[in-house]
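Quick board copy: two proteins, each given as sequence then tokens.
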Amino acid sequence: MSDQIWFILKVLIVSAVLSTLIKYGGSSLSLASTPTLVLIVVFLPSLIVAIALWWRLYFYRQID
């Protein structure tokens, strides 16, 4: 049970750090707001998760 609590705590800490970096450090990035950049920012997290899940499924099937 403590492993699950530790994992949740680590996720919360990383999330808080990323949120703080985005809030206070994001304005210092000089990026032009283009439709291409917006599409990349919106779809990249979903694409990364999809690739990670596919990769896990691929290796899981190789083990069986």
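And the next:
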Amino acid sequence: MSGDKIRCPCSKCKNLKFKDPHEVGYDLYAVGFVPNYYNWTSHGEPLDPSVIPQTVGSSRYVPPEMSGWGDRAEMRWEQEMVYDAYGVPMSQFNPSQPSNDPSEASTSYQPDADENPSFYQPYVDEGLAERFQDVLKAADQPVYADCEGYTQLSAVTEFMNIKAEYSLPETCTNRVLQSAGGMLPRDHTLPDSYYHMKQLMSKLGLPCVEIDACPKGCMLFWKEDETLEFCKFCGGNRYKNVPQSKKKLRQRSALSKLYYLPIAPRLQRMYASTATAKHMTWHVEHETNESMMAHPSD
């Protein structure tokens, strides 16, 4: 608080501005609360590490036999995030150690004779097992010995959320990480830079493809046009003009870029697990009643 004013938790002010309570009420009515603000730390509530929003995945239920950590109700939130990202039982990543749980054997779907078996084959990605083990370790490894509040993955996720929510520049994020690391024991696992945080988060399978584009929106420098340096419609430059003396010292930067989030890896993960694959064909297989309002897919 600042006198009679309080921080405004609306989605526009994001707890950065102090306003009168009635103004806060108007803002909340107009634009709503800031997303994922469950633990009211900006209004005097103590920090609760267990109150952290789910930011990855959409399924809230996973059968116990499908999870290497057991019942989902007993998982920590970062373990749920790893499972949502990969969506496969742990035994698939370590075939040399088969599960002793007979229920896990039922997760291998056997298609009928009139079905196409290749459609149900699990997606195999080279290096998937190694990435999964790295993220699995980060989800279980505490930030430092005997730390009960945070694991490496949960700490990185929270720093990434803070950076995005408050639009912190990379240099500021690096300084915060280095300062926080200096206050921790020497054997801590907190990354020392934003770059290393991105390396860990990228293993969750959230790829982003950068495609150079014409500044005027005429075209994308993609596929057969990937090597072009000028727009074939307006003739505009693809790259920023760099002084001749600096051309050898730095890589050319595009004037405009498009950031594409591929949907194929997410669909492949959904089809890799029978717990989610059966829901992918719901729009085709579900029954409808002609006398009742139906789903738009009909």
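Board note added afterward: The chain has a mean pLDDT of 74.
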